[in-house]
Amino acid sequence: MKGVVGMVVSNKMQKSVVVAVDRLFHHKIYNRFVKRTSKFMAHDELDQCNIGDRVRLDPSRPLSKRKRWIVAEILKRARIYQPPSPPPTAAAAAAAASRVKA
């Protein structure tokens, strides 16, 4: 078996991630390229993967019932959206200043 590249779709487990791997193949009857997605559970020893990360998986011995892959490397980190914090209001700034003086 060779390594595959996919996108992390779930990291809710401890030291495990679910990776979606897309593949294209040519359909002989339809004469079109068809996209199929497979989901693999993979072992993430350091718990570093986040949803949206692009990772490379290597095959390994069976680690559990469904886990037969190991995250070899994180190829590209996902950009995690953080909403901008609202500017402090005058009342909040005055309360913070009064706490500092006391």
The value of Rg in angstroms is: 22 Å
What is the rounded distance between the termini?
67 Å
Poorly predicted parts: none
Query: What fraction of the residues are assigned to beta strands by DSSP?
Result: over 45%
The SS-based structural class is mainly beta
Q: What's the mean pLDDT score?
A: 89
Biggest sheet record: 5 strands, mixed, barrel
- Strands side by side in the biggest sheet: 1-2-3-5-4
Query: Strand tally, please?
Result: 5
Which bin fits the share of residues in helices? 10-25%
Number of helices: 1
Broad shape = elongated
Instruction: Report the order of strands and helices.
Output: EEEEEH
Which tags fit this structure?
Ribosomal_uS17_bact/chlr, 102 residues, mainly beta, 1 helix, single chain, 5 strands, Small ribosomal subunit protein uS17c
Describe the structure.
This protein is mainly β. The N and C termini lie far apart (67 Å). The model has no long low-confidence stretch (mean pLDDT 89). It is elongated and about 75 Å long. Strand 4 and strand 5 form a beta hairpin. It has a 5-stranded mixed β-barrel. It contains 1 helix and 5 strands.
